[in-house]
Amino acid sequence: MLEYIDLTKTINKSEYKPAATKLERKLGALQRDVQKHQIPLIFLFEGWDAAGKGTLINRLALALDPRGFKVYPVLPPNEEEHLRPFLWRFWRKLPERGGIAIFDRSWSGRLIEERVEKTIKGKILLRAYNEINSFERQLTNDGYLILKFFLHISKKEQKRRFKDFADTPATQWRVTERDWEHHKQYEKFIQYYEEMLTKTDTEIAPWNIVGAHDRRLATLQIFKTAVESIQKKISDASHKKNAKAAKKSSIPILPKLQKSILDRIDLSLSLSREQYEADLKKYQERMREIEHEVYRKRIPVVIVYEGWDASGKGGNIKRLVQRMDPRGYEVIPIGTPTESELKHHYLWRFRKHFPKAGHVVIFDRSWYGRVMVERIEGFCTEEEWRRAYSEINEMEEHWANFGAVIVKFWVHISKEEQLKRFESRESLVYKRWKITKEDWRNREKWSLYKDAVDEILFRTSTRYAPWTVIEGNSKLYARIKALKTVIQSVEKHL
Fold this sequence. Notes:
The chain is an alpha/beta fold. It folds into 2 domains: 2-245, Rossmann fold, CATH 3.40.50; 262-493, Rossmann fold (3-Layer(aba) Sandwich), CATH 3.40.50. It has helices at residues 13-36, 53-62, 79-82, 88-91, 113-116, 122-141, 155-167, 177-184, 186-199, 215-246, 273-296, 313-321, 339-342, 348-351, 373-377, 382-401, 415-427, 437-444, 446-460, 475-493; strands spanning 41-47, 69-73, 100-104, 145-152, 207-211, 301-307, 329-333, 360-364, 405-412, 467-471. The protein has a 5-stranded parallel sheet, with helices on both faces. A 5-stranded parallel sheet has the order 7-8-6-9-10, sandwiched between helices.
């Protein structure tokens, strides 16, 4: 791929200036259109050391309103970032809808320097390619535009620029011994760059290779590519919006499974108070030990609680963490997304809470709202919730690849038991806050939610993130089963 790039082309100043001015003005106008159409835009710059990434990012920034973009120089991961999946820090920096993020190096860098340093290879390398491609696909499916530029220079040109930097007192700091060592490994780097470009060059996020010997020509290529890509994105977004508006509004429901998974659950299972007290003490003590073991071995643990309203999720979580050290776990209650969260990919607000290696995060409701509440209530399109099953599976697989233990609970109760608990909450003043009009409305859609839950259990129970259905009519039985399941899952991983 790189060998076919013509690095000899140049453009003189008299030709460059009017062309650049015209494109700059067009980019400024398009930035306003991006904001108007709420399109999140990502510029990504990769390339050789001394290829001029900083200069070209500056040229791009000067064409834009500085209030509408952020530049992120990507350095080697710090200690906090090392303790999480490698894409975590990039998810956190995603722009809101209508915003622009400019990355000076990116997630693709992991496939180069870490390979040269031999800290990534084999299965981990192949997983990284897959994770990057799925990351970019999820973003573009959600409306993001990703513009990827690779700045290419020859070995001879890189050496010349390094010498110029080194010979100038003000820029000597920019060239290190490591840079010179990498320069000697130019042939190895070009091999890895070729592979990275080939494996991550996709129809939805293609690489634009820029010959960077002549910076004026490189600037024009970047500006022209950006203008054409943004114009096309805005046109496509308008057509899609019109098509969506013309489409008849409905709440699509997938066909029922031949036999409901939830109907097979034995809700008569229970536990005596005496047995419960004995088991609770034993398993809570073990849970405290488990917390210390995962910390020592730096294993992240993700626990997800879903279930019917009034199924006892809160009380279950309380017993799970009762003997644990609060410095080692966090409970994340999930409610209606905030204005900022709605401006991001729907998984953004969950991914940012992924625990540090060695810590435990418990989600009280989760990303499964996409294929349950949002699906039933019509808060997302059919295309969006159908796509979500694979996106969720991919996210959980990426977490498992990082070494996370993932435990997912559906706390199940009968419709009759739910009614009894609703009425109990309304009759007790100190529990009345727990019951809302929305709870009663959701109850009227019990059969729709039941079908959605069956579909979730069927489509997203995987080897690396299986579902456990907890028989919840007996709160005592449910609490002990949850404790035992978490302990067994972590012990199996250990």
